[in-house]
Amino acid sequence: xxxxxxxxxxxxxxxxxxxxxxxxxxxxxxxxxxxxxxxxxxxxxxxxxxxxxxxxxxxxxxxxxxxxxxxxxxxxxxxxxxxxxxxxxxxxxxxxxxxxxxxxxxxxxxxxxxxxxxxxxxxxxxxxxxxxxxxxxxxxxxxxxxxxxxxxxxxxxxxxxxxxxxxxxxxxxxxxxxxxxxxxxxxxxxxxxxxxxxxxxxxxxxxxxxxxxxxxxxxxxxxxxxxxxxxxxxxxxxxxxxxxxxxxxxxxxxxxxxxxxxxxxxxxxxxxxxxxxxxxxxxxxxxxxxxxxxxxxxxxxxxxxxxxxxxxxxxxxxxxxxxxxxxxxxxxxxxxxxxxxxxxxxxxxxxxxxxxxxxxxxxxxxxxxxxxxxxxxxxxxxxxxxxxxxxxxxxxxxxxxxxxxxxxxxxxxxxxxxxxxxxxxxxxxxxxxxxxxxxxxxxxxxxxxxxxxxxxxxxxxxxxxxxxxxxxxxxxx
Length: 477
Prior knowledge:
Number of helices: 14
Largest sheet: 9 strands, parallel
Strand order of the largest sheet: 7-5-4-3-1-15-12-10-8
Distance between the termini: 21 Å
Shape: globular
Helix content: 25-40%
């Protein structure tokens, strides 16, 4: 019976904008994330064009990887990591996104990070753009709405591809690219918020602007994948999508059709383009019904065909139900659906569905027949320090159940490459901008009052996950 491969990539995931801090150190510029305030489960974070005195902007300091990278990588090595998912801060390399020459200090920082990972034989998995478009591109071009941003991104990619040759093999172009199908994606991913000042969940919804910006991301992704394949054949490039797994609320055919429609738009549209190399036919009707016209330049369709991904990665936290009639929303990871009566929920209202991960892996594999990697999964929870540690049995239970279902998917025939649980060390929440929502195996002493010395503390889950890696997923007790 199949089980995890001997070279299965066990590890953990982070993002520069939620983890690095040092937002204006050594020449780094401001990203959209640096312009986002803190928030909470009940009060949304805001994005402000101008920094407000006395307001907390948590991405500025995050959990300070910039000054703790050696300590953190040593902790990852202690757990036995085979892979370390991280991102490069675009604004650390090109502060406004528009410079012709990269910032050498920024390049040197990642040299040091990759060298430290190599010391412990840990493979980096690098997200090129993870929710941190330079704010300069927002002000000048309205983010990805303008084609000029493609050129800026390609220049950035060519710089890091050459600089880190021999140090990085696995790359992801855009984090959760399908967030751009939702209004909140205008802030997090697309940067189409020129002049906007307000809550991230209240951005005026300009669908044609968002889908035009998404098209430019598709083209940019394909261009740099094609370039990498031609110039660095050892590189493997993947996508990264939110898998917002959903089920029909009932067996009413109307619910089934509504769920299919939802899944196509949320889960499959972006990855159909990136994996297959063309727009799926079901989008024709959507664009027509929403009066959306995508402006393409000559050659765009050919570029999409030539720059398809080598492997498929996704985030999975929860599932929901879809109904044609009942539109009541439950809480979710940038998404909302009708709560599933068969499932329990986390402190943040996210429904916990381990079997949904097996189902999702099979759906992805059947659709694309590409190697698959789960690059985000985990439980955001309130952690309490007791006896000098955190007794997070609830997190262990969550991860145990999901890893068990991943193995079932492997037995089903899925070519699963690896697993990097989200926020293996505590980071700032992308959805709420708070420290209180913790995911990590390692507790970071920092709170939502801007207090704490950033000291690192191993939680109970740290030692449990170490055992999981040592046993290649066999010991989940």
